Amino acid sequence: MNQDILMLDGIVKRFGRLVALDHLDFSVRAGEILGIAGPNGAGKSTALAVCTGQLPPNEGRIRFEGQVLNGRPPHEFCHAGIARTFQIPQVFSSMTVRENVEVGRDFGAPSGRRASSGNLEEVLALTGLQDSGGQGAASVDLITRKRIMLAAALATEPKILFMDEPLAGLNEAEIKAFADLIARVNAERDIAIVLVEHKVRTLARLSSRILILNFGQAVRLDVPEVIMSDPEIIELYLGKSHAA
Ligand code: ADP
Ligand code: MG
């Protein structure tokens, strides 16, 4: 499955005089896990925000399944089948776990692709929340908040899911559990995943290809075996984050 579903073409994003994305080009293939790594400030989170419609680019084009999405509001990106999770998980603390996931479903699915309640049960089971649906979301721990945010994103029935540092703040056992969950989501629901992650060994284990960003540009794109065995890449772009 080498078909490109999302294509970024010459994306420039400026914050005042700072050029956060500098003519960035890359594509995401249907069903793959594309890893994105690179130093702090390289533009990884900005790239995700542009791909998911939160930040409009100053230049360039975003095409998803043949439609040009630039200039559309975020909910239209979502309705087209693009979802995301954030580095710091946000949940509605006055709601139950299940209600949080329902918000994702109701926000995300346009009438034509409205998710069924069967899908909600499937999503809760897949993310390991089947027994905590009735629990208040205020009191749950970090990994459960991450599960809820992932479940809410999946309830929108995305074709492509962007995740910004999903493993941040987790301990070793939780990293393993959440990385396995990401792999399962990709395999079982056939969703392409774009994964920004500092834990590069885990990133290499999960990804079919890894894109290295530096100063807002794509400097390397290759399979993990090549990226991880290149001393220059490790030294220049992955540095001390070369752990876990
Ligand atoms: P990364 O996620 O790779 O660490 P970011 O995409 O967050 O990098 O940031 C890229 C660059 O853009 C950094 O220099 C950062 O300081 C700057 N930047 C990001 N968001 C904003 C913003 N909202 N306003 C101004 N500068 C920003
Ligand atoms: Mg970031």
Mean pLDDT value: 92
Proportion of residues in helical segments: 25-40%
In CATH terms, what is the fold-level topology of the largest domain? Rossmann fold
What is the number of strand segments?
10
Q: What ligand species are in this complex?
A: adenosine-5'-diphosphate, magnesium ion
N-to-C order of helices and strands: EEEHEEHEHHHEHEHEEHH
**Percent range for β-strand residues:** 25-35%
SS-derived structural category = alpha/beta
Number of domains: 2
Uncertain segments are: none
Radius of gyration over alpha carbons?
A: 17 Å
First-residue to last-residue Cα separation? 29 Å
Classify the oligomer. Answer: single chain
CATH superfamily of the largest domain: P-loop containing nucleotide triphosphate hydrolases
CATH class placement of the largest domain: Alpha Beta
The major β-sheet equals: 6 strands, mixed
Task: Quickly count the helices.
Answer: 9
Principal-axis shape: globular
Tell me what the CATH architecture of the largest domain is: 3-Layer(aba) Sandwich
Strands ordered across the widest β-sheet: 6-7-8-3-9-10
